[in-house]
Write a structure and sequence with these properties.
The complex is a heterodimer of chains A (about 240) and B (about 110).
Chain A (H helix, E strand, L loop, with lengths): L4 H18 L1 H20 L4 H10 L3 H12 L4 H12 L2 H8 L8 H9 L3 H13 L4 H25 L14 H13 L3 H19 L6 H21 L1
Chain B lengths: L2 H26 L6 H24 E2 L2 E2 L6 H16 L3 H18 L1
Antiparallel strand pairs in B: 1-2
Helix pairs in contact in B: 3-4
Classes of the chains: A mainly alpha (about 240), B mainly alpha (about 110).
Chain lengths: ~240, ~110
């Protein structure tokens, strides 16, 4: 039962718009951080092309900001790449966690989706997919909107870096933390999840303060999720 | 570092970033995962969100900060309440940002 071409494109258009709208909090957060990256990258001596190229093909905010700092102080390419690997390794957990929701997708779509998997897009999708099945056009619209905002922010930082120096009055730097709070609340459906979140949050702060470098998120998540499973079993019995 | 070397470094960064993002999705999708693994994966979102969020709102410059200087922590409270009440994404984000804006006007 194939829909006619016009019905199908109308249908698709609706999903693309809905996806783009859902990405609004990410967009608000990415514009200023991308901007900051654009400014710092220029200062560290990266060409405008390389700056935009990094936002296009690496697309991982915290690692990009760390790397421009490393380039500025003359760290070797190999240690830059290793650092990037360690900083971004947490995405492995996120990719695994979304797999049960994307079982029906073809491999090419998974490969495209993974390219734009960030902390923020993960947070949004993990909640969206629990509420309704993963609609492909809508999901890609979220990712492309977020990525476009990141690139646009970077570009603005490159061209207008000297003009705008203070974004604090707009509180755009709170868009992402606030989104994480809202998504965490929406994510929690049972008590064992509250326990897992509290444990992971506490461990994360502790490990961070004890100087576990970039491993604190991964380790806190693994331990938090494992105890979550245990507590769930314990509640059931 | 010259621009060409930076360009090559960026390609290396892209590879080591993409591989962990894509491998689990490609390797695990379509497979019948053990029940225990699926149960574990269901806890990952809440755990990883909390692990990323908590240092961002409890710490400032790498130290615990519970005073009015840590606006992000105090704004978290109305944001949390809005999230619990509305179970939506937009309103809590707007509430949180407004509280930060007002807080900065009062303090700064």
């Amino acid at each position: 039962m194939a829909p006619t071409a016009s019905q199908s494109s109308k249908h698709h258009f609706k999903h693309w718009v809905q996806g783009a709208l859902q990405a609004t909090p990410i967009l608000l957060g990415y514009l200023p951080i991308g901007f900051a990256f654009g400014v710092l990258s220029q200062k560290a001596g990266l060409s405008p092309f390389n700056t935009l190229f990094m936002s296009l093909i690496v697309y991982a905010g915290s690692s990009q900001l760390i790397v421009v700092g490393l380039i500025a102080v003359g760290v070797t390419p190999l240690s830059i790449i290793l650092t990037t690997f360690v900083v971004n390794l947490r995405h492995m957990l996120m990719s695994a966690a979304l797999t049960p929701h994307l079982n029906k997708w073809p491999k090419w779509a998974l490969a495209g989706f993974a390219f734009e998997l960030t902390d923020e897009s993960f947070a949004l999708h993990a909640t969206r997919f629990v509420e309704k099945a993963a609609e492909r056009a809508e999901t890609f619209a979220v990712n492309i909107t977020a990525h476009a905002a990141w690139i646009l922010g970077t570009w603005l930082g490159v061209v207008a870096g000297g003009l705008i120096t203070d974004i604090e009055p707009f509180a755009l730097d709170y868009a992402l933390p606030a989104m994480f709070i809202a998504l965490l609340v929406m994510q929690i459906k049972k008590n064992a999840q509250i326990f897992a979140a509290l444990l992971a949050g506490g461990l994360s702060v502790g490990l961070y303060l004890y100087g576990w470098g970039q491993w604190y998120v991964i380790i806190a998540t693994i331990i938090g999720a494992s105890f979550g499973v245990l507590v769930e079993k314990w509640i059931k019995n | 570092m010259d621009q060409e070397l930076i360009f090559m470094t960026i390609i290396g960064m892209a590879l080591v970033t993409y591989i962990p993002r894509v491998i689990p999705l490609l390797a695990l999708s379509g497979k019948n995962l053990p029940k225990l693994v699926i149960a574990w994966l269901r806890f990952v979102p809440a755990a990883v969100l909390a692990a990323m969020l908590t240092p961002a709102i409890l710490l400032e410059n790498g130290q615990f900060a519970f005073g009015t200087e840590n606006l992000f922590l105090w704004a978290a409270l109305p944001t949390l309440i809005a999230a619990v009440l509305t179970k939506s994404l937009f309103l809590p984000v707007v509430v949180g940002m407004l509280v930060v804006i007002i807080g900065r006007m009062l303090i700064g």
